[in-house]
Write a structure and sequence with these properties.
single chain, alpha/beta, Rossmann fold, GMP Synthetase, Chain A, domain 3, 3 domains, 5-stranded parallel β-sheet, 5-stranded mixed β-sheet, 21 helices, 26 strands
C-alpha cells in the first residue's frame, strides 16, 4: 500500500451491504474431519499430498531428493491408522495434543488424526524456545506432543519436568538420537486396532463431532508479553472453507504449493482446510527456503499462499535483472509495464481492453511477461497474500504479468478470514470486502476495525478478562488495526492501533504505509519506522544484501562484510535516495529525517519477528539501541 494515508484517525463510517453466506445443506460439514472425509469420498483416486522424501527414506542409491505422493484414499488410511493408534494410547475427546514441527504432510495427518478423536490440537511454532513451548503445553494441559525430529524431541525433553500433564512424545522422523521413551509415528500406527467394530466405533465418534466442538487453540505470536491462546471451534474453521469458496473459484484440479507454516492459522486454512477440503493436491515445498524458486518451477502450482516478502523478492529480482540488461531490454520492459498499468486502469474503470491494447499485451507477454511467469512454474492463477501489507505497485506488477495476487486480511482470533480481494472485484492497496456471512465496521472514536461473524473465536483460553476486552457485549471483535472503508465496503488498513507514532509535537504518524512503501524498493528487505515522543521519525532499514552486493560490485566497491558495507558513504547515500524516492508522497512531518542501516536481517531467532513475520518493535529497539540512538541523537541505554 504505497498511497499515503492521512495521519488523522479515519472517521469513515459506511455500513456495507451484508452479503449472506450461501452453503447448500448437503455441502455443510459438521466438523473439519467430516469436510475432509467428504473430499476423500469424492476424490479417492486423486492425488492429495506430494513431498520430497528425506535422505533417510530415499531408495537405495538415490543421490537426489525423490518426490512421493498419496492419493486421497491413501491419505485417509494414514489418518485412520494414526488416529486409532492415538486412541489406543489413551487420547480421548477433549484432550489437548500439541504439534511442534515445520510444514510437512505428517503435520496435517497428526492434526486430522487428533481431531477425529475429538481432541484439541495446539500448534507450537517450531522456532519457539523451550520455555515458550512449555508455556503452551501447560496452558492447554497437553497430554501428547508431536515433534518433527530428534532436535525438537530434545527441546521438549529439556522442559519435560516442567510439564506435568505431558505423557507422550511422538516423533515424525525416526532418525537421530531420540530421548528415551519417545515414540515414532510408526510406533503409534502399530498400535492401531483395526478390528471392524473398533473402526466403526471410531467412525461413529468423529461423525458425532459438531461445529460447536473446540478444534484448536492457537497462541497468538504476539509482539508483546506472553501469547494468548485463541480458542477456535470446528465451526470457526469451517467458515473459512465455506466463505472462501463462495468468493474465489478453487478447483479439484488445483495444485497448492505449501510452504507457509501450518502452525500459523493462515497456512493451515489455505493449505490444509481449503485445499484438502476442495479435493486439490497439496505439494509440500522443501524445508530449505532457498529451494522454493526451484520447487515452484518443478511443481508448477496454480494456487499459492505467501506473505508479501515473497512477492517483493520476485519483484526486486526482476528489476535487478532489467537494470543489468541492455538499454533496449530496459525499454521493452518499461513499455510492457506501462501496458500493464493501462490494463489495471481499465479494470478499475470497469471497461474492457481495446483491441489495440489487447494486441500489444500479447506481444508483451511473448517478450517479457511469459518469461517471468515461467519462473513461478507458469500456471499460477492466484497468489493469496496475507500477514502484512502488500505494496500496490507490486500487486499491479503481478497483475500485468497475468498472475493475480489476492490480498486478504485476518487474525488468529478470526480464524483468520475477515476479508479478501476477489477475482472479479479487486483493488490493490485494499484487502477487499468482508467475508460472506460476516460484518465489518469502523469504530467512530478510534478508527479501529471491528469484526462480527461466525469466524470470531470462542475466546482466549484461561483469560476471561482478555476475552471481554477483545469481544464486546454486541459480539464485535476489536482487531487492534486502524482502517477505513470505501463506498462498497472494501477495507483499507492504515496501521495498528498500538503502532501509531505520536511525535513530540503531538502529531500522529502511521508507520505502516511508509514501511510498505519502503519495502517496494529492491534494495530494502525490511523497514521499521520509529519516533514515538521524538521531534521527528527515523527509519531502521535491513538491506536486501543480494541486491546491495550486486550494486556495490557494479559501482567499484570491494567485497566486504555486511557490517562494513552498510557504513560506506556511497551506500548510505543510495539508501537516502531510495527513502526519498519511495516516500515522496508522504507528509513532510511523516518522512524519516534519518536512516540507519542494519548489518543483518531482522529474524525470529533473535526475537525481532513473530512467526507470521510481524516486527516486534520493542525487541528491535533493544537489540539495536546504538542505531536507534543515532536516529534521534541519543546515547544508548547501556552507554556511559
Amino acid at each position: 500500500m504505497t498511497t499515503p494515508a492521512a495521519t488523522a484517525v479515519p472517521r469513515v463510517l459506511q455500513t456495507p451491504e451484508f452479503e449472506p453466506l450461501i452453503v447448500a445443506p448437503e455441502d455443510r460439514a459438521s466438523s473439519v474431519v467430516d469436510l475432509i472425509h467428504r473430499s476423500v469420498e469424492r476424490n479417492s483416486g486423486r492425488e492429495a499430498m506430494r513431498w520430497k522424501l528425506p535422505k533417510s527414506q530415499r531408495p537405495e542409491g538415490a543421490t537426489e531428493a525423490v518426490w512421493t505422493s498419496r492419493t486421497y484414499r491413501e491419505m485417509w488410511d494414514w489418518v485412520t491408522s494414526v488416529s486409532l493408534g492415538l486412541k489406543d494410547i489413551g487420547i480421548h475427546d477433549g484432550d489437548s495434543v500439541a504439534i511442534i514441527a515445520r510444514t510437512r504432510p505428517e503435520w496435517a495427518i497428526a492434526d486430522l488424526a487428533s481431531l477425529a478423536l475429538g481432541a484439541v490440537t495446539c500448534p507450537i511454532y517450531p522456532q519457539s524456545e523451550a520455555g515458550q513451548a512449555a508455556f503452551v503445553i501447560n496452558n492447554v494441559s497437553a497430554r501428547l506432543i508431536f515433534v518433527e525430529n530428534a532436535q525438537q524431541a530434545a527441546k521438549i525433553e529439556s522442559i519435560r519436568a516442567e510439564c506435568p500433564t505431558l505423557e507422550h512424545v511422538v516423533a515424525f522422523e525416526p532418525s537421530g538420537k531420540l530421548p528415551a521413551g519417545t515414540l515414532t509415528l510408526d510406533d503409534v500406527m502399530a498400535r492401531a486396532d483395526t478390528d471392524a467394530a473398533n473402526r466403526l466405533e471410531w467412525q461413529d465418534a468423529w461423525k458425532a463431532i459438531d461445529r460447536d466442538h473446540i478444534a484448536t487453540v492457537i497462541h497468538t505470536s504476539g509482539t508483546t508479553a506472553n501469547p494468548k491462546g485463541a480458542v477456535l471451534s470446528h465451526g470457526n474453521v469451517l467458515f473459512n472453507y465455506e466463505a472462501a469458496n463462495q468468493v474465489v473459484d478453487f478447483y479439484e484440479t488445483d495444485i497448492f504449493l505449501s510452504f507457509l507454516p501450518l502452525s500459523h492459522i493462515y497456512g493451515r486454512i489455505v493449505d490444509e482446510v481449503i485445499a484438502l477440503g476442495r479435493g486439490a493436491a497439496v505439494v509440500y515445498a522443501e524445508a530449505v527456503i532457498e529451494r522454493l524458486p526451484a520447487n515452484m518451477v518443478e511443481v508448477r502450482p496454480t494456487v499459492m499462499g505467501a506473505p508479501p516478502r515473497l512477492y517483493e523478492r520476485v519483484y526486486a529480482r526482476v528489476l535487478s535483472a532489467v537494470e543489468a540488461g541492455s538499454p533496449m531490454r530496459q525499454r521493452i520492459f518499461h513499455w510492457a509495464a506501462g501496458l500493464g498499468r493501462r490494463k489495471y486502469a481499465n479494470h478499475l474503470a470497469g471497461r474492457g481492453d481495446s483491441p489495440w491494447l489487447a494486441l500489444q499485451l500479447k506481444v508483451a507477454d511473448a517478450l517479457v511477461f511469459g518469461k517471468i511467469r515461467d519462473r513461478t512454474g507458469g500456471r499460477v492463477r492466484y497468489f493469496v497474500s496475507g500477514s502484512a501489507a502488500l505494496s500496490s505497485e507490486i500487486g499491479e506488477f503481478f497483475y500485468a504479468m497475468g498472475m493475480l495476487v489476492l490480498e486478504g486480511y485476518g487474525l488468529t482470533e478470526t480464524s483468520p478470514f475477515v476479508s479478501v480481494n476477489r477475482p472479479d472485484d479487486f483493488v490493490f492497496g485494499t484487502v477487499g470486502r468482508a467475508a460472506p456471512g460476516s460484518e465489518v465496521r469502523i469504530d467512530p472514536d478510534t478508527g479501529e476495525i471491528l469484526v462480527r461473524g461466525p469466524q470470531v473465536m470462542q475466546g482466549y483460553l484461561n483469560q476471561p478478562e482478555e476475552t471481554a476486552r477483545a469481544i464486546d457485549a454486541d459480539g464485535w471483535f476489536h482487531t487492534g488495526d486502524i482502517g477505513e472503508l470505501d463506498e462498497i465496503g472494501r477495507i483499507r488498513i492504515t496501521d495498528r492501533l498500538k503502532n501509531i507514532i505520536v511525535l513530540g509535537n503531538g502529531k500522529n504518524v502511521s508507520p505502516g504505509p511508509m514501511e510498505a512503501a519502503l519495502s517496494s524498493s529492491r534494495f530494502v528487505a525490511q523497514a521499521v519506522i520509529l519516533g514515538d515522543g521524538q521531534p521527528y521519525t527515523g527509519a531502521l532499514i535491513a538491506p536486501d544484501f543480494d541486491e546491495l552486493g550486486a550494486w556495490a560490485a557494479a559501482n567499484g566497491i570491494a567485497e566486504m562484510p555486511p557490517e562494513q558495507l552498510v557504513e560506506q558513504p556511497s551506500v548510505e547515500k543510495l539508501y537516502d535516495t531510495e527513502v526519498k524516492r519511495t516516500l515522496d508522497g508522504f507528509g513532510v512531518h511523516e518522512r524519516p529525517r534519518r536512516v540507519a542501516l542494519l548489518p543483518r536481517l531482522l529474524s525470529e531467532e533473535e526475537g525481532e519477528l513473530t512467526p507470521s513475520l510481524k516486527t516486534k518493535n520493542r525487541v528491535v529497539v533493544k537489540n539495536w539501541a546504538d542505531k536507534v540512538a543515532y536516529l534521534f541523537d541519543e546515547r544508548p541505554a547501556d552507554s556511559k
